[in-house]
Structures
1.
Amino acid sequence: MNVAYIALGSNIEPRKFHLDQAITRLRQHQAIAVKKQSPIYETKPVGYADQGDFLNMVLEAETSLDPEALLDVCQQIEQDLGRKRIIPNGPRTIDLDILAYNHENIKTDRLIVPHPRMHERAFVLAPLHDIAPNLILASVDKRVAELWKQIESSSGKDVSLWTQNGSGGE
Ligand SMILES: Nc1ncnc2c1ncn2[C@@H]1O[C@H](COP(=O)(O)OP(=O)(O)OP(=O)(O)O)[C@@H](O)[C@H]1O
Ligand SMILES: Nc1nc2c(c(=O)[nH]1)N=C(CO)CN2
């Protein structure tokens, strides 16, 4: 069985509902078993500032799907949940990115894994660090804990734990 890490993000309300829907659809897929769910973080938008804050989280899943078939499932879920690609890095109901797939380095026309920008993104590394601190990213040959430590002091302020009733910590 293959192990994949998938990042989820939403900054169009209802944000939590969009995350829940994506998780439900992944769980319903017969070739995907969600093994771990990170906490949810509320995060400042990166790349295109003039948009609302995101909810971000990361899942660990076992799957018999190959990487491109897993991407198909992720993109179908994005479509089903009304994702529109209008502004690069802009607002979205839901975004699903494949962060890692086993310890493979994958480069095809449709897919780069590990995700090429993940090691600089607090909105990815904070939740990934919660569920997989010892994961080694094949692209840079570094542990997630080390990557998170490198950016935590500069970018840690842009992410905070989120809870439904608004009492999330720092
Ligand atoms: N690891 C990956 N996970 C998901 N999509 C990927 C990956 N690598 C390449 N892609 C490609 O990226 C394309 C653009 O994806 P998308 O529009 O969701 O980008 P984005 O999420 O806005 O930006 P970013 O990739 O920086 O997070 C997709 O069509 C997909 O083929
Ligand atoms: N905070 C945050 N910023 C982003 C996000 C995201 O999920 N969270 N996704 C982006 C493109 O994938 C660009 N910027």
2.
Amino acid sequence: MTAQILDGKATAAAIKSELTTRVEALKAKGVQPGLGTLLVGDDPGSRWYVNGKHRDCAQVGIASIQRELPATATQEEIEAVVRELNEDPACTGYIVQLPLPKGIDANRVLELMDPAKDADGLHPMSLGRLVLGIEGPLPCTPYGIVQLLRRHEVEIKGAHVVVVGRGITIGRPMPLVLTRKSENATVTQCHTGTRDLSSHLKQADIIVAAAGVPHIIKPEDVKPGAAVLDVGVSRDEAGKIVGDVHPGVAEVAGWVAPNPGGVGPMTRAQLLVNVVEAAERAAG
Ligand SMILES: Nc1nc2c(c(=O)[nH]1)N[C@@H](CN(C=O)c1ccc(C(=O)N[C@@H](CCC(=O)O)C(=O)O)cc1)CN2
């Protein structure tokens, strides 16, 4: 292993410690931030993520509102809980854990959320604001990745970033975040329909791998010294995470974000940042 580690656990811990001070300042002004979550179904992974979000809230002093529905919940039942969270004054921001069960129109659920309470940055209004360059919550994983790179002093400005994947939480919004003036990267978006992926990867200063295809990023496709962030989550027969990045990449790359321990903890930290920033905006 020659690459340096983009340590998401340690970076997220530093961000959480900074947030604790900001939450104390809000409380001194009489503002109590509260994160709501809506989990539908019994997927153990989703439950683990949601429980982690509430553990994080407790650590920094954010209140928790936890709502759950069974996998059999109807579109109407889910939308009723979204309306409740929109109205609940204790819930200053919330998320609907994705994916929702098959047959549920997730876009309709997201559209029904009060955009002022969108803690994930995934509401159509928040994504529209991102396109237009208007301040608002940023999608947690893409902005978590930017923070992880910045805090390890990996140059983003002028870098050629290749994003592999086009999912709603990472691939689709990642180029929007990276091409803002404040980041100023040049982005190539690839996906499972890209012809000759390897020719694109070879030109990248930074690779964000979020295709969900085990080991799609191979050592021979990585430019020596590049930063490679593994965000892919597939599971082997034992339930262990298999990322998108082949372990041999660590011999070629300059930086690697491991999986687990890289981008995942940053996603959680950025969610808390969004909740605190929304409460700060509301408090003036
Ligand atoms: N409403 C949302 N749904 C989903 C999002 C999201 O940002 N908003 N992202 C993912 C799941 N996710 C957060 O919700 C998430 C994924 C992974 C991690 C994490 O810390 N992973 C650990 C490893 C965990 C393991 O061993 O299984 C790591 O990378 O170290 C946090 C949050 C999809 N849904």
